[in-house]
Specification:
Helix content: 25-40%
Shape: globular
Bound molecules: 2-oxoadipic acid, magnesium ion
Length: 267
Amino acid sequence: MTQASHPIPHQELATLLHESRLGARERPRLTEAHPLLGVEDAYRIQELGIALRESAGERIVGYKMGLTSEAKRKQMGLHESIFGVITDRMQIHPGEAYSLLGQIHPKAEPEIAVRIGKSLRGAASRDEAWAAVDAVAPAIEVLDSRFLGFKYFSLPDVIADNASSSQFLIGSALPRPPHWSELEDWKLTFKHNGQLIHEALGSEISGSPVQSLVEQVALLASRGKSLPAGHWVLLGAATPAVTLGPGSQILLELQGTHTQLTVSKTD
Ligand code: OOG
Ligand code: MG
């Protein structure tokens, strides 16, 4: 069986994932039926999936890097950074209740997010990337895989599924440190229902959180895209993700601030 005789049906697969998400129905991973599906096919499927969301009125507000920390790579069994797209409809605003209705098997994870003040394109150094950042904030990402049991085992599957993105919450902006290396010493404390579950330093994120931004810009550039001003980038989780249930209280402490996600009790 060659790839030429069995081309990957990108549009059809994007539509299947789109419908799984809308119907909150998990489905088999794509590489089961399409073992030759590669990383570039997967980004094409991701892009077509985002186009479906845009045609339903959603607006791209940024990107998310994934699998940038050793903790996440171990949790998911994959060892390369990936990215996904975030839209306005995925944003949960602080204080807004989060409902499990319409979700499959959501998990939350602690992150740092940056807002781009000046567009970035191509190979940026850490200094150049940091100079383009105009805000830094704590963030909680909610993941939800469209694949059965949140199991996918391969990079193409998770990339096609928009890097398991579901929703995200960005807390109040923190003072922007003059030098990017300061983020490496920021401590992220992650609590679930009042109990400490994970704690990690910023340096867990790509060795230095700014490195996730450098990689995001490079990954976009290799697809002919820039990172525009005004976009947010979630730099990747510092610790493993935690499964959400009814009434879950998720708290991220960062630099003396508290960012909270509360799951509704009754859905
Ligand atoms: C993939 C997404 C990983 C992160 O921050 O590492 C991610 C997944 O866990 O299914 O968003
Ligand atoms: Mg994440």
